[in-house]
Design goal:
The complex is a heterodimer. Chain A is α/β, with parallel strands linked by helices. Chain A contains 17 helices and 16 strands. Chain A folds into 3 domains: 245 residues, P-loop containing nucleotide triphosphate hydrolases (Rossmann fold, 3-Layer(aba) Sandwich), CATH 3.40.50; 87 residues, Winged helix-like DNA-binding domain superfamily/Winged helix DNA-binding domain (Arc Repressor Mutant, subunit A, Orthogonal Bundle), CATH 1.10.10; 77 residues. In chain A, strands 6-7-8-3-9-10 form a 6-stranded mixed sheet, sandwiched between helices. A 4-stranded antiparallel sheet of chain A has the order 2-1-4-5, covered by helices on one side. The radius of gyration of chain A is 25 Å and the shape is globular. Chain B is mainly alpha-helical. Chain B folds into 2 domains: 252 residues, MetI-like (MetI-like fold, Orthogonal Bundle); 220 residues, MetI-like fold (Orthogonal Bundle). A two-stranded antiparallel sheet of chain B has the order 1-2. Chain B has a two-stranded antiparallel ribbon with strand order 3-4. The chains are: A alpha/beta, B mainly alpha. At the A-B interface, strand 6, helix 3 and helix 4 of A face helix 6, helix 7 and helix 11 of B.
Chain lengths: 446, 577
């Protein structure tokens, strides 16, 4: 029997979607039908790879961005405009360089119209709680990264928000400072030294989420959706090495790597040349062939749990998943239930020299990567064998935003150049085929 | 328990008065008295037959009047900048009209507006000196304000997104956001552009203070007209004294006003690393540690701003957030604004077209040939400048110690108006017997080569030393070094310098192609000469045609030549950051 404790429901999102209209009329969906509840007394982590819309989701909760569909409720009332009970701590601190620490912390208080003495008192109290006593007259440029983020915290907490939202607050700090601040925040929360009722932290680090959160919401991308809602019931302070901790991390990796696999299986049935049927568009992860090669080399003696590999390499979800995804696209690795294993082709890749490696990649690109196939096809069709990049960008922009399209093109060009399929001239923005003479061909042994 | 060390509870702070503070108070009082006395001279009846007194005793009073005029023009141009740029920033629809309009306004030469300004203000204040003064102030205003507006608009557009989001989420009112975020972001650009604006004002000063429209004389007592009159009468002593006063004023302003402001504006840099070579100013250091200013700031300034801020910010937690850009009433306002502006532009174009119909075919031919000739002169001046400034600039830039010593001099040389030196040049030319063709190019050179030099030095300094070392290690021959390292390296800075230089050259052409000197009229064919002549003689249709052609040429070169080059500089020649 499940006992439901009637805790106050602060925020709820019902079927919220967010999409943007492109100039060419296409709609890009960032978030698709997200439903979420935030209650008092819990720390919730929004976890997902980059591009999963987690920052957008947080900003919708804060009221900075309105949803395209669905509604955001604050205390069961529809939210109009800015959420009055939310304060944000930013990834790059967002401090005003020309204001002292005290003036920065007083910022929100001044906006509320509180008079000078009262304001100063409140601000000084918060600065004391956050541990920056003595630095009230310092300017941000005199402070270290960790101290600047403390100012960011003090500023947010000074306005006494009900919900404290944090957008990757520790990712711009070095490992030691981040660890320190994380535990200080946890101390403040557990000892109830801060007036907030609930905390929402957006992060791409699975370990950070498991260390801090009572509930982890896992987001996937393409489109942004909630993949899982994991409760974490371990007691604070959690031990990274404990089996229960590692099990949760493993579970999250399974969830994050699973949907990708389903996508790849679908691709095997598609014919090499696109015949215009609307299909789920293949999205190239932004990695260079060098990173893929590096990962494969490391996998030679380290196959097994993906999360262990990530921990050993000190890589976050954002860093390792794109490389794994790219390697999967080229059928060099195989993921099953969160375990990563080299395929036969991958094993062949490791033992080959540079020319054979290029040949392997060339084959894989020509049979499995639709964008590369498209580019080659277009190049062959033209008499001078040159195409402007805008042509490819237009095709990409039917499925992706302009920025995303640029990134995909860059990746396709990088892979194509490695495989010596085509070349690129950056100033004129043209992709072209280089003419290899018969002498050069015979040198290579063709 | 320790209390935080805020200003309110510092007990060890004793007021350390010293003699410098006494001097400061005295200086402030003296300044206020001088301003009042000089301003009182601006009233009264205007004397049409006013002759400039070139005795040395008149020089201090004339200098004070000129400075007052320039300051009186600077403050409105600053306020105008804030309003114009902020409106363009807040409303995207308004920006579509306001920014191209700015481009056009920037290209209209001062002397084209002179007749309209003077006549209008004379009509409002008939026979009064204040009318002529206001006309002069208005003209100085138009030569000061445009670059500040551009700069502030650019700064506003470049505010980092996170700072803007923080302002929204902490519910800053529009007033608070302006003073806490938007104005500070633009501070550095505004300070540097103010320096440039004052230089522009000095440049046009001689012409503005010695305005002649037809047979009517609108001369005002001031440093500019002093220099003009001294050269006219061939009085070398007075001319030298006037030039010394001019250079002295420029140097004094630089040391007491601009240097401290530039050093103070470092506080607003968005970078968060303390740079090694930040500008310093002894005057600013003095101000910062002076007890006088601290008292004024705490007892007077801060409580005052508190009260004002409190009235303008929202009370309590029910703060109204900044209205959404896309809400219905604000869109309606946008529409009203844009259509109103559009109507004014249409009406202006219609009136202009009517005036232009009065011109004959030969008039148009004269204008076009004039345009071609002046354009050739501008090009020649540019090439000559480049020929010497690029090698010298690179040489200076490579040697850090030399650069440190010479840069203030170059900065001051760029501030001293070439138009002040022009009479000397004319005397020289009259002796040699060269025509105004050379004189005009020489004036353009004098006025603009410092900008290019300044930028080339900065560009050479920006090339990382590793690239120089690589050139040595791989034994690059001299030509190769220039082709592959130096020219591409300084390219972005060179373009910036050239844009300003060419703009200045066009402006200079107006003052240098038609000169009334020592009772004679020296003139040469060119667009600038047509503008000066028609402005002086009241031939308004011709003035309008010539101004329009000059504006079109400047705007076209901006869009077709400079913008693409600038983009090329940004994309291809950016040093890897």
């Amino acid at each position: 029997m499940v006992v439901q404790i009637a805790t106050e429901r602060l925020i709820s999102l019902n079927g919220v979607s967010k999409s943007y209209q492109q100039p060419n009329g296409q709609e890009i969906t960032i978030l698709d039908h997200v439903s979420l509840d935030l209650r008092a007394g819990e720390i919730v982590a929004l976890l997902g790879p980059s591009g999963s819309g987690k920052s957008t989701l947080m900003r919708m909760i804060a009221g900075l961005i309105p949803p395209t569909k669905g509604e955001v409720l604050y205390h069961d009332q529809p939210l109009v405009g800015l959420n009055p009970g939310v304060a944000i701590v930013f990834q790059s601190f967002a401090l005003y360089p020309w204001l002292t620490v005290l003036e920065n912390v007083e910022l929100g208080l001044k906006a509320q119209g509180i008079m000078s003495d009262q304001r100063q008192q409140k601000a000084l109290k918060m600065i004391d709680v956050i541990g920056l006593d003595g630095f009230e007259n310092a300017y941000p440029k005199e402070l270290s990264g960790g101290m600047r983020q403390r100012v960011g915290f003090a500023r947010a907490l000074a306005v006494e928000p009900e919900l404290l939202c944090m957008d990757e607050p520790f990712s711009a700090l070095d490992v030691l400072t981040a660890e320190n601040l994380r535990f200080e925040l946890l101390d403040l929360w557990l000892e109830r030294k801060i007036p907030t009722k609930s905390i929402l932290i957006v992060t791409h680090s699975i370990e950070e989420a498991v260390i801090l959160a009572d509930r982890i919401v896992v987001l996937g991308r393409n489109p942004g959706q909630i993949r899982a809602n994991l409760p974490v019931t371990l007691t604070h302070y959690r031990d990274r090495k404990s089996p229960a901790f590692q099990a949760i991390v493993d579970q999250v990796y399974k969830i994050l790597t699973n949907p990708e696999l389903k996508e790849i299986e679908k691709q095997k049935e598609v014919s090499p040349i696109d015949d215009g049927k609307p299909q789920k568009s293949q999205s190239l992860p932004a990695v260079r062939v060098g990173s893929i090669a590096g990962l494969l080399e490391l996998l030679e003696d380290r196959q097994g749990d993906l999360y262990r590999l990530a921990q050993e390499l000190q890589l976050e979800v954002d860093d390792i998943l794109p490389i794994v995804e790219a390697a999967q696209l080229m059928d060099l690795v195989h993921i099953q239930e969160g375990d990563i294993v080299l395929t036969n082709l991958g094993k062949e890749f490791i033992t080959s020299g540079i020319d054979e490696r290029k040949q392997i990649i060339r084959n894989q690109l020509q049979t499995r990567i639709r964008l590369v196939q498209r580019i080659s096809h277009l190049l062959q069709a033209k008499k001078n064998q040159r195409i402007p990049e805008e042509l490819i960008l237009d095709i990409l922009e039917t499925h992706f935003s302009a920025q995303e399209a640029q990134q995909q093109l860059k990746t396709a060009i990088d892979w194509g150049r490695y495989a010596e399929l085509y070349s690129y001239d950056e100033p004129s923005g043209e992709i072209f085929l280089e003419h290899v003479t018969t002498e050069e061909l015979s040198e290579v042994g063709i | 328990m320790t209390r935080p060390l805020t200003p309110a509870n510092q007990t060890l702070r004793r007021l350390n008065w010293d003699w410098k503070d006494g001097l400061l108070i005295f200086a402030i009082l003296a300044l206020i008295m001088t301003i009042i006395r000089t301003a009182s001279q601006f009233s009264g009846v205007y004397n049409n037959q006013f002759q400039v007194d070139i005795s040395l005793s008149a020089l201090p009073s004339y200098t004070a009047q000129t400075l007052l005029r320039m300051s009186a023009a600077y403050v409105p141009s600053l306020i105008f900048t804030l309003f114009y740029a902020y409106t363009a920033y807040r409303s995207a629809a308004a920006a579509k009209v306001l920014i191209p309009l700015l481009d056009v306004l920037q290209s209209i030469p001062v002397l084209s507006i002179a007749p309209a300004a003077v006549l209008a203000l004379i009509a409002i204040f008939p026979g009064q000196r204040i009318g002529v003064e206001l006309a002069a102030i208005l003209l100085i205003f138009t030569s000061m304000t445009w670059n500040m507006t551009f700069s502030f608009y650019q700064s506003l557009c470049n505010i980092p997104l996170e700072l803007r989001e923080a302002a929204r989420i902490y519910r800053l009112s529009a007033w608070q956001q302006f003073w806490t975020l938007e104005l500070p972001s633009g501070a550095i650009g505004l300070v540097w552009n103010s320096v440039m604006s004052w230089a522009g004002g000095w440049f046009a000063l001689i012409a503005i203070e010695s305005l002649t429209l037809g047979d009517k004389n609108f001369r005002l007592p001031g440093l500019g007209s002093y220099l003009g009159a001294a050269a006219d009468k061939g009085n070398y002593g007075a001319l030298a004294a006037g030039l010394m006063a001019l250079v002295g004023v420029v140097v004094a302003l630089d040391y007491f006003l601009w240097r401290p402001l530039i050093a103070w504006a470092e506080k607003f840099k968005l970078e968060t690393i303390e740079s090694q070579n930040s500008p310093t100013s002894a005057v600013l250091d003095f101000f910062r540690r002076s007890p006088t200013l601290r008292i004024v700031s705490e007892r007077l300034w801060q409580p005052l701003t508190e009260k004002i801020a409190h009235r303008w910010t929202s009370q309590g937690r029910t703060a109204k957030p900044i209205p959404n850009e896309n809400s219905a009433p604000s869109q309606w306002l946008n529409w009203l604004f844009v259509s109103g502006l559009g109507l004014i532009v249409l009406w202006g174009t219609w009136e202009a077209a009517l005036m232009l119909r009065l011109l004959s075919w030969s008039d148009w031919q004269k204008v076009v040939t004039g345009a071609v000739l002046t354009a050739l002169r501008v090009f020649t001046a540019l090439v000559l400048s480049l020929l010497w400034t690029v090698p010298v600039g690179v040489a200076i830039g490579r040697n850090p110690r030399l650069a440190q010593i010479l840069q203030p001099f170059v900065q001051i040389a760029a501030s001293v108006p070439a138009t002040g030196v022009f009479p000397v040049l004319l005397l020289f030319l009259v002796h040699i017997g060269g025509g105004l063709q050379i004189g005009s190019v020489a004036l353009m050179l004098l006025g603009t080569m410092w900008y290019i030099l300044f930028n080339v030095i900065a560009g050479a300094q920006a090339i990382p030393s590793e690239l120089w070392e690589a050139a040595v290690v791989y034994k690059l021959p001299l030509i190769e070094r220039w082709r592959t390292l130096i020219i591409p390296g300084i390219f972005p800075y060179l373009i910036t310098g050239m844009i300003t230089a060419v703009g200045g050259a066009w402006n200079a052409s107006i003052f240098s192609e038609y000169v009334q000197f020592q009772g004679k009229i020296l003139t040469t064919d060119g667009l600038g000469s047509i503008i000066s002549q028609s402005s002086a003689s009241g031939k308004y249709p011709l003035l309008l045609a010539a101004t329009a052609i000059m504006s079109i040429l400047v705007v076209l070169t901006n869009r077709l030549v400079w913008r693409p080059l600038y983009r090329l500089a940004e994309e291809k020649y950016q040093l890897l950051g």
